[in-house]
Amino acid sequence: MATVAKLTSIGILVVSFLLAILLYYLISSKSKEHKKKVIERVISQLINLVIYVWIAKILLNITVFIRDPLAVLAYPSDSQAFYLAIGLLLVHLVYQGKKDLQQVKLFAEAIVPIFLSASFFYEFFQAVTEEINFGSFYLGLLFILLIALIIGFEKWPKHLHDLSLMITWSIGTLILSVSLPYITIFGYLVSPLFLGVWLVTLIGLLIYNQRKVVR
Asked: CA torsion sign, 114 to 193 to 158 to 34?
C-alpha cells in the first residue's frame, strides 16, 4: 500500500510538471525553436535537482550509507535533503553561469511560471485524490498567483514580473507556514526559516535588478 501511495505521488508530480510545461508553451509567444530550448533546459535542471536530492540524502546519512547503501536509498527524502539539494542546484547554476550564461538565462526564463503552475496542479491533484484539509489555503494562494502569472505574462517586465510573483509566493507561504500546523512544497515539509531566507534572497535580487535599471 505504501508503494502504491509513493508511485501515485510521483505520478502526480510528473503530470503536474508536464502540464506546467504545456501551459508555458501555450502562453509564450516566442518561436517554437526557442521554447523548445527553454523547455529542454528546464527539464535538464529538474533532473539535476532530482539527482541532487539523492546525493543530499546520501550525504545526510553517510554513516548508514557506508554500512548499508541500499538502506539509505530506500529512505524517503526529507526536508533537510530538499534544502541541501536546492543549495547544490544553486551552486551548480552559478558555476554553469560562469561557463555558459546563456544556458542559465534559458532556464531562468521559464522556471518561475513552470514552478508556480506545477505547484498549483500538484496541490489541486492532491486535493482531489486526498481529503481536502488546510492545504486548500495554499492551493488558493497558488490559484491567485497563477491568474496573475497568466494576466501579466509577457505584458510586464520579465524580471519584475517573476520576482514580484515569487516574493508574493514567499510571503503568502511564510504566513501559512506560521499559521497552519505545517506547509509542504511538492510533498516536502518546509520551515518558516527556509521561507524567510528565500524571501530575503528574492528581495535582495529585486533591489539589485532595480539598481541596475536605474544605472
From this structure: negative
Q: Which of 133, 129, 119 is nearest to 170 (CA)?
A: 119
Q: What SS3 state is found at 76? A: coil
Provide CB contacts within 8 A for 161, sequence distance 6+. Answer: 152, 153
H helices of the chain, where? 2-27, 32-60, 62-67, 69-74, 79-99, 101-129, 135-152, 158-179, 192-214
DSSP letters spanning 109-121: HHHHHHHHHHHHH
Task: Give residue-wise pLDDT tens across range 166-195.
Answer: 999 999 999 999 998 888 899 899 999 999
Nearest Cα neighbor of 10 from 106, 109, 126 is 126
- Angstrom distance (rounded) from CA 209 to CA 22: 29
> Cell 524571501 identifies what position?
199
pLDDT of residue 89 exceeding 80: yes
- Using CA atoms, how far apart are residues 207 and 167, in angstroms rounded to an integer? 12
Instruction: For the full predicted model, state whether its pTM sits above 0.70.
Output: yes
Domain boundaries along the sequence of the chain: 2-214
Gap between the Cα atoms of 146 and 83, Å rounded: 24
Whole-angstrom Cα distance, residue 199 to residue 29? 30
Measured CA to CA in angstroms, residue 203 lies from 100, 133, 170, 179, 209 at distances of 26, 31, 10, 22, 10
